[in-house]
Each structure stands twice: as structure tokens, then as C-alpha cells.
Amino acid sequence: MRCDALWSNARLATMAGSGLGIAEDGLVAVQDGCILYAGPAGKAPIFEAEERTDCEGRWITPGLIDCHTHLVYAGNRAQEFELRLKGASYEEIARAGGGILSTVRATRAASLEELVEQSRPRRDALMAEGVTTLEIKSGYGLTLDDEIKMLRAAHALGDRANIVTTFLGAHTCPPETNAEVYIDSVCDMMSIVEPLADAVDVFCERIAFTPEQTARIFVEAQRHGLKVKLHADQLSNGGGAALAARHGAVSADHLEHTDETGVRAMADAGTAAVLLPGAFYFLRETKLPPIDLLRKHKVPVAIATDCNPGTSPLTSILLCMNMAATCFRLTVEECLLGVTRNAARALGREDIGTLEAGNQCDLAIWDIEDLSELVYRMGFNPLCRRVWKGKDA
Ligand SMILES: [Zn+2]
Questions:
Q1: Is residue 97 pLDDT above 90, yes or no?
Q2: Residues whose CB falls within 8 Å of the CB of residue 304, separated by 6 or more in sequence, listed in order
Q3: d(CA 70, ligand 1 centre) in Å
Q4: What pLDDT band is residue 91 in, cutting at 50, 70 and 90?
């Protein structure tokens, strides 16, 4: 059988079937950017490959997926971080021009090109650790033109990775209006942002938008054929997980304060959980997400960096896995599935996240002896090669 390229003498973690789908002495063959075969060499057809790579026993996983980021923004909040370390209160920080609105101001002031230039190094840092798919949210523009600019900037970063875009107009209420009026305008934006977005997200929280306002946005999003997802129950249990499930959300994210009713609703609706240990760490939270309940009800669990300037300035998917293991006590298997198969679930994608025939051929090839090293180390990158759509990238 003919194929474009073939990687042999590899140990595969296909993430297909149950568990990690391990194949010792494995082989991956690609044709036109898609996987023709991934599995044990002994069961493979005979391939005639244009290009062959001997992996010398290295591990191959699917290209990693960061399924929740806000990595397109301008400026940063390092000074605010420094002020907080010196004991400044939130009011003092707000008075000094800090907080989310400082990112909104900087993002509005930046041109599309500046936004892309400032965001690209964050994307590159993730890609350098084997990430081949990133979700990127808008939500620092908060006007139609600035939200469109953010979504365009996200798409402009799609030249070396799959970019999945999410319209998060309902991130926070802009200072020039009130929440009820603003929700109406977010609903109005939907028909215009629709071609630029795969999904719609809302920050449903006491300090952001109510469940009723969230539901209005979800109904409008679904009228436009967009998937929905939710920032749910991060700071308090507002019934966000159950609300997301009721609307058939692909994911509910954060979930620190979600109870069993919410978890059960997610399980019934097939809504994935996205845990964000970077924000938990950076905010020095102590309330753990309901890991045992998620396990008990077999909710697929993804983990992501939540890369954003205010609460999780994290651009390392490997460190994110270590944090999920250390802070949340996720197992190595849960961490690895959380940045591959389950992260794809959280994006509503079936063509990535596992090494299976027909899927897009995105691979991460690792210089490690054991998969647990990917979760165990801190600040060390054992990536050997990254393959995107069947090509070295
Ligand atoms: Zn977030």
C-alpha cells in the first residue's frame, strides 16, 4: 500500500479504545495529511512510503490539544502581579488601572497585526511542547469590531496549528454599559461573528453574568448553529454545570464548586469537564474540583492551560499536566487523556486527539523512556518532533 510518510520502530499511545491504547513496536502511516494506519507493526499492511522515519524506540502520542485558552490579548499584567505580591488590594489595583479592563483597553488599542505579533510567542511556546490544536477565545474586545479583531487574530495563528475559535463576548460587562443592555448586544453580534467562531462561551458567575443571561446567549448561539461551552462554578456554585448540560454544551470549564447534581447532569448530556489547574495555582485556590464525582459518573475530563493575562499566564501544556497531577491528584493516564482524546471531546471534535485511521495526522514524538515522564517533570521539554497534518512542523 502506498503512503506519503511512515514512522516506524515507535512506541505508540494511540489514546484510542480504553486507556492509553499502547502499541509497542508501533507504526504510523499517513496519506494526504490523514492517518492511514496507526498500531502494531505486526498487524500493518506492507507500505510503500515516500518518506520513512525510524523513531528508534521513541514514544508517539497524538499532537497535544490545549482546549481552553485566552491567548490572544495585548499587554500583560505583570505589574499588577507585582503589586499584589506587595499586598495591594483589588481596589488599589483597579485604581492603578489593573484588572481585566486594563487588558480590554490594551486589546482595543492594538491593531490586528499588533495583536497577532503579541500573541504568536504564546502559541509558539505551546507548540514547542507538542501542541497541534489550540482553542482561543475572544472576550477582551467587548465591542463588535474588537471581538471580530480578536477572532481574526486567532485565525491568523492557524498557519502552524489547528485553531478552534470561541466567541466569549460575555466575558465581562464593559464599563460603558450595563449587563442587561450588553447581553442584548452580544446576542446581536452573533449573526456577524458566526462565520469566525466554532463555539460560544459565557462567564457565568456572581461577578459576571447570571444563569438567565447565560441561557439567553446559549439560545441565540444555537439558533446560529454554534456549539456552546461555559465558564462554570469557578468561584461559587451557581448551578453552571447543570445549566451547561441542559443546553447540550460540549464542555463546562473550571467546576471547582460543582456539586453531584451538576456532575450527573453533565454525564447524562455528554458534556466534558475541562479542569484548569493553572488558574487554581495562580489564584492560590483551595477548593478542589469534584474529581471523584467526575470519575464516579464517568464524565470525560480534559485539562487546559486557560492561558490568560490575569489568572493563568501559563504557556506550558506539560507543566499544566504536572499541576493537574500535583494539585488535583489526577493520574498520569487521566492527564494524558486530558490533553488528547478528552480535550478533543471538549471541543466537539472527532478527527483529532487519537491515533486512528481517518484522523488528521498530528503527532508528538518524545525522547522519553516512559509516558509518566511527560507528567512528572517540571520545566523540561522532551519533545523530539512535532508533526502537523502529516508533515514535520
Ligand atoms: Zn478561561
A1: no
A2: 66, 67, 68, 69, 135, 253, 274, 275, 276, 320, 339, 343, 346
A3: 6
A4: confident
Measure Cα distances from 177 to 126, 173, 174, 203, 224 in Å. 36, 7, 6, 17, 25
> Of 64, 14, 7, 58, which is closest to residue 304 (Cα–Cα)?
64
Q: Are 309 and 76 in contact (CB under 8 A)?
A: yes
Q: Which residue has the cell 508517539?
A: 60
Euclidean distance between CA atoms 299 and 279, whole angstroms: 21
CA of 365 to the centre of ligand 1 (A): 29
Confidence of residue 94 (pLDDT cuts 50, 70, 90): confident
- Mean pLDDT across 309-326: 97
Distance, CA 157 to ligand 1 centroid (Å)? 19
What was the pLDDT predicted at 143? 97
Ligand 1 centroid, distance to 291 Cα (angstroms):
19
